[in-house]
Specification:
Shape: globular
Distance between the termini: 44 Å
Structural class: alpha/beta
Length: about 450
C-alpha cells in the first residue's frame, strides 16, 4: 500500500497565494494556537483529527491535493502519514482496501421473511434496535441490569425482556423463557472479555465454565440457531496473545459452527464515532454458506451531523479545576495544546510516561467524529469535551453519537443513563451488521 505525507512545499505555496505571511497568521485563521499548528506540522504528529480538514478549509483546497507519495528524499523533512489513517468522506478512499468478496453492499438488502433473534447481554437495546431495523423479530432479550431491562421494557412493551442472571437462564434452559415452536435464526450478544486457564491445548466448552462466554456458548448449544453474532472490544484480538479468541473459535467450532471475525469501525456505518469492535459471526455447518461483512458506506458523519437540533437533556459537569484547564483547549485539541506548566500539573505522572494519550483534556471538534464514548463522561484521561461549551456531552448528545433515535428513552439516574449509552452497540452500526446477516439468511431456501 502506498503511503503519503503532507507536502510542506505545497502548503507554503498555498499560503503565499492566500497572502498568509506566517504560521502565526495561519494558526489565527484556523482558530488554533501557534503551538497547536506546530504540533500539527511536527514529524511526530498523527493527524487523525479535524485540524487537517480545518487546514484545507482555510487554504480552500481538497486534502488529496496537498498529499504526495512518500519517497526517500523527503523522509527527513516531513512526517510519514498513511492515507488509510485519514477519515475522509470519499468513497474511493474508504473502499480502497476492501476485498469485494469479503463485503456486501447492504443498501439494497431487505429480509425476505421475519427472521428471529434471541439476544443475550442485551443492555439498553442498541444492538436489538439495530437488528430490529434490519428485519429481525425478537424472541427474547436476557439482561441482568434492572435499569437497562427497564429501558428495554419502556421502549418495547411487546418485547420478551428476561431480567435474570444468564447463569440461571442457561442452567434452567433457555426454552423455559422463549417459545419452543419458533425456529431461531440468530443468537446475538456481547459477552464480557474474560481470561481462560489456558494450558497450551485446545479447550472445550466445559473448560471455560464460569465465564460469561461459557453461558453464551451453552445457550448457543441449546438453541442451535442458523447463525450467531458476538461483538466485543477490539482488544480481544490480542488478549492473552490471541489465545482467548482462539479458544472461543475452538468452542464455537466444536458446537458446529463455521466462524469468521473482523474488526469493524462504527464510523464506516453511519455513526459519528471512532468506536471499533470485533464482530464474530458463526454459520451452522450444515447450511454450507459463506458470510460477507457490511461494506463501508460512501460517507462518514461528523459530530456536527450527529448533534444537529439535538433535544435538551441533563448532563454532567466538570469540576471548576478541570473546567479552567479545558477552557484553554481548542476544538480538536488535547493536552498538548495547554501551556507546558498547566499540562504538567494536569497530567501528573502521565506527562512523562510517553505515548500519545490524546484522550486527556480532549475537546472534540465539530468537523470530526467523536472518540469512543465511555460510561463516565467526565472521567480523567477519557475527556470528551463539547466543541463550544466547556462541559461533557449531555445524555441526549451521548445517545445521538451512539445513533439512538430521539424517542428512545432511558430509565434510571443520569449516571445510569450514561452507563447504558456508553456500553451500547451503536444502533446504525448494528443495523448494518444485521443487514449483512440477513443477506446470508436470505440465501437459505425456505
Amino acid at each position: 500500500m502506498k503511503e503519503y505525507i503532507l507536502s510542506r512545499e505545497i502548503i507554503y505555496e498555498l499560503m503565499k497565494k492566500k497572502n498568509i505571511k506566517s504560521q502565526t497568521e495561519l494558526a489565527q485563521l484556523m482558530g488554533i494556537t501557534k503551538h497547536h499548528l506546530s504540533t500539527l506540522l511536527s514529524p511526530k504528529f498523527n493527524p487523525i483529527k479535524n485540524t487537517v480538514e480545518n487546514l484545507c478549509n482555510v487554504l480552500e483546497v481538497d486534502l488529496l491535493s496537498i498529499l504526495e507519495e512518500k519517497s526517500q528524499h523527503n523522509l527527513q523533512e516531513v512526517h510519514q502519514l498513511s492515507i488509510s489513517d485519514f477519515e475522509i468522506n470519499k468513497k474511493e478512499t474508504i473502499l480502497s482496501n476492501i476485498n469485494s468478496n469479503e463485503y456486501i453492499d447492504t443498501s439494497k438488502i431487505s429480509a425476505t421473511k421475519n427472521y428471529t433473534v434471541l439476544e443475550l447481554f442485551a443492555g439498553a437495546g442498541g444492538l436489538a434496535l439495530g437488528l430490529e431495523k434490519s428485519g429481525f423479530k425478537s424472541l427474547g432479550l436476557v439482561e441482568l441490569d434492572r435499569y437497562a431491562a427497564k429501558t428495554l421494557e419502556l421502549n418495547r412493551p411487546n418485547w420478551n425482556v428476561i431480567n435474570k442472571d444468564i447463569i440461571e437462564v442457561a442452567k434452567e434452559g433457555i426454552f423455559n423463557y422463549i417459545p419452543k415452536n419458533e425456529e431461531l435464526d440468530l443468537l446475538s450478544g456481547g459477552y464480557p472479555c474474560q481470561s481462560f486457564s489456558y494450558a497450551g491445548k485446545k479447550l472445550g466448552l466445559e473448560d471455560i465454565r464460569g465465564t460469561m462466554f461459557y453461558y453464551f456458548s451453552k445457550i448457543l448449544e441449546q438453541t442451535k440457531p442458523k447463525m450467531f453474532l458476538a461483538e466485543n472490544v477490539r482488544g480481544l484480538i490480542s488478549h492473552d496473545k490471541g489465545r482467548t479468541l482462539q479458544t472461543m473459535i475452538d468452542v464455537f467450532s466444536s458446537i458446529g459452527y463455521k466462524v469468521t471475525y473482523k474488526i469493524l469501525k462504527a464510523l464506516h456505518y453511519g455513526v459519528a464515532q471512532k468506536r471499533e469492535r470485533i464482530v464474530i459471526i458463526g454459520i451452522r455447518n450444515d447450511l454450507n454458506l459463506d458470510y460477507q461483512y457490511p461494506q463501508p458506506y460512501d460517507y462518514q458523519l461528523t459530530l456536527k451531523d450527529a448533534l444537529e437540533n439535538v433535544p435538551n437533556s441533563v448532563g454532567a459537569k466538570y469540576p471548576d479545576s478541570k473546567k479552567r484547564v479545558l477552557d484553554l483547549v481548542p476544538p480538536g485539541g488535547y493536552w498538548r495544546d495547554l501551556p507546558e506548566e498547566i499540562a504538567k500539573e494536569y497530567m501528573g505522572a502521565s506527562y512523562y510516561s510517553g505515548g500519545g494519550r490524546t484522550g486527556m483534556a480532549r475537546r472534540i471538534g465539530w468537523h470530526e467524529p467523536s472518540l469512543t464514548l465511555t460510561c463516565s463522561p467526565a472521567q480523567k484521561q477519557t475527556e470528551r469535551c463539547h466543541p463550544e461549551e466547556t462541559r461533557p456531552f449531555t445524555t441526549r448528545e451521548y445517545a445521538r453519537i451512539q445513533s439512538f433515535p430521539d424517542d428512545w428513552k432511558f430509565y434510571g439516574s443520569m449516571n445510569q443513563v450514561y452507563k447504558q449509552i456508553g456500553n451500547a452497540v451503536p444502533v446504525e452500526f448494528a443495523k448494518a451488521v444485521g443487514l449483512s446477516i440477513v443477506n446470508t439468511l436470505n440465501k437459505i431456501s425456505h
